[in-house]
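Work Package 3 (structural annotation) set out to generate three-dimensional models for the target panel prioritized at the project kickoff. During this period the team completed the workflow that converts sequence records into C-alpha cells, so that structures can be stored uniformly alongside our sequence database. As a representative example, we reproduce one entry of 300 residues exactly as it appears in the project archive.
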Amino acid sequence: MKDTPHWLKKPVNNNRRICDMKSLFSRYKVNTVCEGALCPNLNECFSKGFATFLILGDACTRSCGFCSVKKADPVSVDPAETERIAEVVRRLGLRHVVITSVTRDDLADGGAGQFVRVISVLKASSRKPAVEALVPDFNGEHACVKKIVGAGPDIFGHNIETVPRLYPIARSGSIYERSLDVLGLARRVSSRMVTKSGIMVGLGETEEELVLTMKDLRQAGCDVLTIGQYLRPGPENLPVERFVRPEEFEKYKSIGIELGFKYVSSGPFVRSSYLAEEAYQKMREAENDRCYITAIGRGY
C-alpha cells in the first residue's frame, strides 16, 4: 500500500455540528453520498452544514471499482423521500442543493422521475435554492435526460470519472461514449443550463489521456469540470496507482481553462460536489466579468 503524502492528510474535525448533521439525516431517513461513498471531505462539509443528498435508496445496481456505495438489492422508490429532503434543506437553510443518486438499472426510467419530483419540490419552496442534479447515465435513454432537464435544475451534472481505457475496470456497466452523449444531449436540450462533469486521477491514466478526455467533454458542451485525486475507500476497491502532486492539479486547471471550460476546480480533495455552491458562484462571477469586458470592447 502506498504511503499517503503529506498534502493528502486532513485534520480530523469532530465538532458538535457534524454529530447534529448525522442525527438530522438519520431522523428524516435521508441518505447522503458523503456517508455512502466515504468521502474524505465529510467532516469539513458537515461542519459547515453542507451535504450531497443521495436519492433512490443507498444500494447501487452497478459495481464500479472505485466506489464504496453498497451493492445490494435496491429498495422500492419512496414517494415521501422528496418531502423529507425538502424539510432537511429547509432546516439547514441551504441556498445550493446537490442531488445525486445510486444507479437504478432496475427501474424503467432509471429513477429520472424521482429526480424530477425532488427538483420540483425544491424549486417550489420559499427559499428557491439553486439545484444541482448529479445524475447517472440512465443507460443512455434520452427521454430520461430530457425529463430531468425539463424540470429546470440550475446545473446538470454527470461524471465521466476516468479515461476511456480504464472504463472496464473502473466503471463496470458504463460506457464512455454514452456518458459523453448524456452531457451532450443535456446541452442540446437547454443551452442556458450549466453542465458539469468530474474526473478522478491517480487510477493509472496518462496526462495525454486526461487531456483528450477533457477535450471530449468540451466538445460535448460541458461547462464546468472538477478534477480530484482518487482515494481508495476500502480494500475491495481499486488501488491508487499514483498520488498526483498539487502542482500537477494546477497544470490541469490551466489546461482546462485554455480548452474553454467556464470553471475548473482541480485539487487533491476536489470532488464533483465539493464546495459546489462556491464553484457555481465563482463561475457566474467569471461569466459576468467576461460579459463586462466584451461589452466594453464593443463600446457599450
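Strands lie at 31-32, 52-55, 96-101, 130-134, 155-157, 194-201, 224-229, 263-266.
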